[in-house]
Amino acid sequence: MMRYSRQNKILELIANNEIETQDKLASMLKKEGFDVTQATISRDIKELQLIKVLSASGKYKYAVSTRHDAPISDRFVKIFRETIISFASAQNLIVIKTLSGCGPAAGEAIDCIGLPHVVGSIAGDNTLLLVVDKEEHVEEILSIFNDMLIMKNKK
């Protein structure tokens, strides 16, 4: 569970800071209360499929890959499966409850899976709101979620 919390914090840190090196990322994580090694950071970067991009300041920084032709890591499916508590819909909205601190990680996972008809998501600490393009597409998304959770229970 600490891994998801740590990886969620990594996603938050790289979204809000220009982090150029694994050392800087490790030091920022330590300030946030995560005791990490370089090997752990390296593994997290690989699992989260982080890449280095040129920032506005002309330096390279870590970012989430936005390549749609890249294979989707099972990691994102696992994050979804292991952090979701429940989900429910109302019209064209889906509200997802997650473990505490895992809302943003679940949101990133859903964004990276590339679900059809999802216009966007908003994540809080333990809740995720998905906006679906049309109410008639909500059942399709819920069916995908159910299939993913059934796979979890079979393992």
From TrEMBL:
GO biological process: L-arginine biosynthetic process; protein complex oligomerization; regulation of arginine biosynthetic process
Subcellular location: Cytoplasm
Recorded metabolic or biological pathway in which this protein acts: Amino-acid biosynthesis; L-arginine biosynthesis [regulation]
Predominant place of localization: cytoplasm
GO CC terms: cytoplasm
Ranges where the Arginine repressor DNA-binding domain occurs: 1-66
Family from the record: Belongs to the ArgR family.
Function, as annotated: Regulates arginine biosynthesis genes.
Protein name: Arginine repressor
